[in-house]
Amino acid sequence: MSERKVLNKYYPPDFDPSKIPRMKLPKNRQYTVRIMAPFNMKCKTCGEYIYKGKKFNARKEDAENEDYLGIRIYRFYIKCTRCLQEISFKTDPQNTDYEIEEGATRNFMALKLAQEQEKREEDAEKEEEATNPMKLLENRTQQSKQEIELMESLKS
Ligand SMILES: [Zn+2]
Predict the structure, then answer these.
(1) What is the pTM of this model?
(2) What is the pLDDT along the chain (156 residues), one digit of tens a residue?
(3) Which residues surround ligand 1, an ion (CB under 5 A)?
(4) Among 16, 23, 75, 106, which has the highest number of CB atoms less than 10 A from its own CB?
(5) Dihedrals phi, psi of 111, to nearest 5 degrees
(6) What are the residues whose beta carbons fall under 8 Å from the beta carbon of 101, sequence distance 6 or more?
């Protein structure tokens, strides 16, 4: 422990900071900004749909060595609302749009698919409700059968 402390303070003449293993850190500075999702997307990790217009706290940075006719390109990082997987996208000045990079797929159908999924879940719930009385009846039948059997066994 004390040795490590010394190491932290003493830099030998041939000290090369690039040789120290460290976590990969972004070179340029990042800012936290409040943004809205610029398009519908689907998380690659958990399949969650993220709708255009959903608000996020994002980290914003300059996309290094990238520009379009001298227009700076910005990259944003957000986290999936369900699984917290990082998703990144950047501005696309050429098409006055945004481009998905990592963590999600851009999905024009996201809203429609989400509505369909919601409907399927609703239907499944309704079906379960519909089948529950049957299950209840089944359980009752089984119970009566057992009662009869019990009575029969008591008689003999
Ligand atoms: Zn996710």
Answers:
(1) 0.54
(2) 444 444 556 666 776 766 666 666 556 688 999 999 999 999 999 999 999 999 999 999 999 889 999 999 999 999 999 999 999 999 999 999 999 999 999 986 666 777 788 888 888 877 777 777 776 777 778 888 888 888 888 876
(3) 43, 45-46, 48, 80, 82-83, 85
(4) 75
(5) -65, -45
(6) 75, 88, 89, 90
